[in-house]
Amino acid sequence: MIKQAIIPLAGQGTRLLPLTSVLPKELLPINGKPGLEYIIEECIKADIKEIIFVISRKKQMIKEYFYHDNFYKKLLRKKKKDKRLKLEYSKIKKYKKMIKFVYQNSPKGTGDAVLKCKNLIKSKYFLMLMPDDLIIKKNCSSSLIKLHKKYNSSIIASKIVNRKTVSRWGIFNLKKINKKNFIIKDVIEKPSMKLAPSNYAVIGRYILPRTIFDVLKKQKPGQNGEIHITDAIRLLLNKNNKFIGHIFAGKYLDCGTMKGYINSTIEISKL
What we know:
By secondary structure, this protein is an alpha/beta fold. The protein has nine helices and 13 strands. The two termini are about 30 Å apart.
């Protein structure tokens, strides 16, 4: 059973400057609450019991957000009947019980962030969510876990994108199983339109095997001197590890750019 999730949060958020010059991008409000809370709620609804946040020392504010008990207690002494305040404090306490923190102080990539969690992951498979990717209306993580039970394999979320935009995405080379699912043969990072094997893009929801830690430990830095999770997945594919791609239901929102962040607030406010 998949009960643990890793969420890498150590990125610098430069695409959202100047908003992120002080506040971590994951705490930026989207329709009245931090974007990170939408990811946590997705995990809870998918029956995840433990969430591992990978942060840097510069993002200590994320930890403080969940360990701000004195702030709530002080307010509640003055406003004992404030239902909204009680609800918020109750929610934060619930989140805090689920969360563990791991530190990645050098920006060495998503693969390195995942590797930092090696000693905390107990089961054969775990969930990984990228916080820039919000999926609303349907629970993508629940769908991946359900599919994992069916195929007993690693699963990666996907969406079909315009062929003119494939150079912005990781793109799958694939063999279709049905309309929603496919066998992943390879993953190509940001190919040209001419070289792209499909227009099925990688989205930041993964069920990964614990064996990926051994690959990441031996992996040499790739582009920009970083350890990339995609490179580790490709190595596992080359060793005949089974990966299934899944076209998820729901609406995808990119919160990692200024335009996407503004649009996310608009879209979620409509729900």
